[in-house]
UniProtKB/TrEMBL annotation:
Protein's UniProt name: Single-stranded DNA-binding protein
Organism: Microbacterium paludicola
Gene Ontology MF terms: single-stranded DNA binding
Underlying gene: ssb
GO CC term, one of those recorded: nucleoid
Top-level taxon: Bacteria
Length: 208
């Protein structure tokens, strides 16, 4: 669980995408676009936030904590592995359905395009992993879900994420006075499951 597969990497030109206390862009950001689709499983760590961008495109965004467990033969027990954090963005119809279906703490499966955004501000550096979602759903290994169809039309290119991702500042990591990403407290419960399959107990707060 929680593993990702990445093959080819393309480095995009640098762009100014920092934040100030007033919310204006400053500093430097560099985006690395992964050309292959990845799939992760994890827990929604922040309440999904829905917004309609100035371009008219609806987007729902939330953080996912993807943890793993492995068996320690020396200790003869299962131990927690590292937790990876992702910012997930869903657009258009998927954004509307995610808004009405997903809540903080739920276990989900996410498939989409991985983007890595390197930020630098006042000598501080960091990396943000983002996924432009193509598909979202509950992980039925840990619970049940009921499907309700909302549309009969065939998905089209209009349902695809914007070519360069969301350009509005809202879609970048949460603003703080010094330009670093900041996220609300993540409080995700451990899911009940057999020891060999249950997810790792997540930290009380996100890394940012």
């Amino acid at each position: 669980m929680g593993a990702i597969r990445v093959w080819r990497v393309r480095i995009a030109p640098s762009s100014s995408r920092g934040r100030t206390a007033a919310g204006r862009a400053t500093g430097k950001r560099r985006r690395t676009d992964m050309t292959d689709i990845i799939t992760i499983t994890g827990n929604i760590a922040t309440p999904p936030e829905h917004k309609v961008l100035p371009s008219g495109i609806p987007v729902t965004r939330f953080r996912v904590a993807s943890g793993t467990r492995k068996f320690d033969r020396d200790a003869n027990r299962w131990v927690d592995g590292p937790t990876n954090w992702y910012s997930v963005s869903a657009y258009r119809t998927l954004a509307d359905n995610a808004r009405n279906s997903l809540q903080k703490g739920e276990r989900v499966i996410v498939t989409g395009r991985l983007r890595l955004r390197a930020w630098e501000n006042d000598g501080k550096k960091g990396m943000e992993a983002e996924i432009d979602a193509d598909a979202l759903g509950h992980d039925l290994l840990f619970g049940t879900s009921t499907y309700r169809r909302t549309s009969t039309r065939t998905p089209s290119a209009q349902d695809e994420p914007p070519a360069d991702g969301v350009q509005e500042a809202w879609a970048l990591p949460g603003a703080s006075a010094d330009g670093e990403p900041s996220w609300p407290k993540a409080d995700v419960p451990t899911q009940p499951a057999p020891e060999a399959e249950r997810i790792s107990e997540l930290a009380d707060s996100a890394p940012f």
